[in-house]
Amino acid sequence: MGAIIPERRSYVAGKWVEGEEVLAVENPADESHVADVFVTPLSEIERAVTEARDSFDRGVWADMPPGDRARVLHAFLDHVEDSRAALVATMVAEAGQPTAFAERSQLGGGLAVARGAIDLYLSMPHEEANPVPVDELVRGRVALSMRRHEPVGVVTAITPYNGAIVMALQKIVPALMSGNSVILRPSPLTPISSLIFGAAADAAGLPPGVLSVVVEAGAAGAELLTSHPAVDMVSFTGSTTVGRQILAQAAPTVKRVALELGGKSAQIYLDDAVGRAAAGAVAVVAATAGQACVAATRMLVPHDRKEEVVEMVTRAYASLTVGSPTDPATTMGPVISAAQHERCERFVSLAVAHGGRVAHGGGRPSGLERGHYFEPTVLDLPDNDNPAAQEEIFGPVIAVLGYRDLDDAVRIANDSPYGLSGQVYGADTATATALARRLRTGAVNVNTALFSAYAPGGGYKQSGLGRERGPDGIRAFQEVKHLVIGELR
């Protein structure tokens, strides 16, 4: 791999900022030291908020014609794309992601979604007539009743370690295109890659105060950004536990909050699609090591095919190559940290203690004594009450469960505090689609998948609030104003 991004400072309101404290970033693949990054002083995070508020209130960006904002943001994205080599090397080093995933899924997918979001915004009406009956308009002497979509204001964007670039792009670009000012706070585990956005803001000529990128080692800055009265909205992707904390921090100032949180998604196989289960199981762990909130980590198959499926998935997982993310032959890299490795171990033990069986994996791969590697693991679970079926593990662990009939499959899939995603596979597309409609989850893939700026994603239940991407993802960063106009009499 080549050299990583050289920047080590935060970007606050058009200026690069150092600090007295540094954050040491670890490479999860070999536990080596990647770099020290300056932690943004709390006073500078406060300044980021103040400058964002000022830039928004003065309209330096919000009042710019949408076509002009689009041109600046395309230049912004051009700079990110031109930094591809260093950015991919950075993602691989700080997140332990295989090179192909960092380059194609994170950067390539993120840029496609960002550019698509610009086009989507430009195609949408942002001022439109209300469907008020004519007799009501006449009685009220109303010439025009309009619904106007305006920017929310100052937006805090908090992103996770597992998708630092793609998650940032699908937050900050729709927010900026909508006319908001944004403060990005990346995960302390993977802060370096997000500094590219400060350089891109400079290169594109984004007005000072419209975008800041702040780095911290703990959570004091995030708490300031989620509670500050000058912040109008918080967009967060991460765990449900932290999402609850953000809701509480935002409540006193009644901020808008958009949350994409945890998941325990089910992939359901009809009897005629069981042969595809191995591929579905590999998709859970390949590249991400299971560290994806949408990962379908519960596999539901007909009871009388369960043993066959467990054997099939075991063979598939045994064939995966676990190792250095810089090796082109690697299928799966490490989990992010020692704490995450311990969490995987703990849930495997809990699964067995509650009647489950480890069909494959369950520990550190042989020959990989350094780095936070965990084997791709297959759990044969007796029921959905097992802790490994109820809790998000966020690692390369899949649970196989049997169902009696389709009603039972729906019951098991919906028996979860989460509802982020789901998958249904069946040769009878009509039956598979009918089943998908019964799942209480924000997205369901039937025999295929789609990740697009035009397709929304988000959660039911404790998997979140609001949507990202799609028209709903644009509207998430806008307020609705009713504008009623009549003649003075």
From TrEMBL:
Gene3D superfamilies linked: Aldehyde Dehydrogenase, Chain A, domain 1 (3.40.605.10), Aldehyde Dehydrogenase, Chain A, domain 2 (3.40.309.10)
SUPFAM superfamilies named in the record: ALDH-like (SSF53720)
InterPro entries linked to this entry: Ald_DH/histidinol_DH (IPR016161), Ald_DH_C (IPR016163), Ald_DH_CS_CYS (IPR016160), Ald_DH_CS_GLU (IPR029510), Ald_DH_N (IPR016162), Aldehyde_DH_dom (IPR015590)
GO molecular function: aldehyde dehydrogenase (NAD+) activity
Catalyses which reaction(s): an aldehyde + NAD(+) + H2O = a carboxylate + NADH + 2 H(+)
EC number per UniProt: 1.2.1.3
PANTHER family: ALDEHYDE DEHYDROGENASE, ALDEHYDE DEHYDROGENASE-RELATED
Family: Belongs to the aldehyde dehydrogenase family.
The protein's name: aldehyde dehydrogenase (NAD(+))
